[in-house]
Amino acid sequence: MKPVVIAVAVLAAFGLGWLGGRSTAPAAAHAPAPGPWIARIGDEYVTEAMFVEEMQRRGGSQPGQFQTAEQRRALLDDLIYRRALVDAAHRTGLDRQPAVRRSLEQILANQYLQGTLRRTQQDLDVTPEDVRAEYERRADSYTVPARRRLAMIRLGVSKDADAAAWTQAESLMAQARTKALALPADVPHFGVLAREYSDDRASRYRGGVIGWIADDRAERYTWDAAVLDAGLALKNDGDVSEVLRGADGVYLVRLVEAEPARARDFDDLAAGIRQGLLQQKLTQAEHDFRVALVKDADVEVRESALAAIAPVGPAADTTPQQPPAMPAQEG
Fold first, then answer.
1. Which intervals of the chain are annotated as region Disordered (predicted)?
2. Which of 41, 43, 91, 116 can pair with 31 through a Cys bridge, CB separation 3.0 to 4.6 Å?
3. CATH 3.10.50.40 domain span(s) along the chain
4. According to CATH, what is the number of the domain 146-260?
5. Which residues have CB under 8 Å from 276's CB, separation 6+?
């Protein structure tokens, strides 16, 4: 265990009120005892009530614990030793070291939070009526939009190609369309035609299937606009578009299947909605607590002094990262 952690643990155990505050009386005149006491260490007293409390804290209610005078004296010796450690730490200024003070302040802050904000948060709840109301209020956002699964055949054409190259690609795609219209009913996509005609590596070996497209979110996808527009215009499963000219080639699109929009069931969402509402309440409670606490703390901020503080580290590097170089070709 780190020395600072050990020191803080000792100071926290004995320096935060367990044995009473440190007296400001002169060393020659000991502070008066707060009640019937068992031992004195400097100006601090181990009272009878404190000793009993410590026995209980250390398992004194268990059979056999602290039944003998030897056991009770061992406990007292431990309390005296630890109090002497705290006194020595104070004398050497350990409690004034920044790291120790930060740790002690953190302990105090955590203890205060546990007794105030955390208790308030534990009492927060979300009723079934709250959950139902939230579900109804956000019904639109809980609706799964209509979507469609598309397949395509692509023949790429260079941007600087002449009209003859485009005409040739369109003629070849027209052949593919004729064959696509004659595919068996049990082939919902382009089947082997995608492998025969398409140059799109990602889809040609999957019957040309490029995946699901949400009807109201076409802008999210990177496919050519001609593909998306045609796919969204197809009405029935199995429909095939006309030959399309896109920005970088000629396309053919087929609607594999379509699913209508559907509302998600309340029972499937209730737990998540409740957790979200509870998190909102927890966050709001913490915000209100923080605002009230700082308001009561009589805070004054010198903005000019804050602005004059220079950063302790260099500024972040905003230069865009360059992609790694391509590996050298062998042979």
1. 312-331
2. 43
3. 146-260
4. 3.10.50.40
5. 134
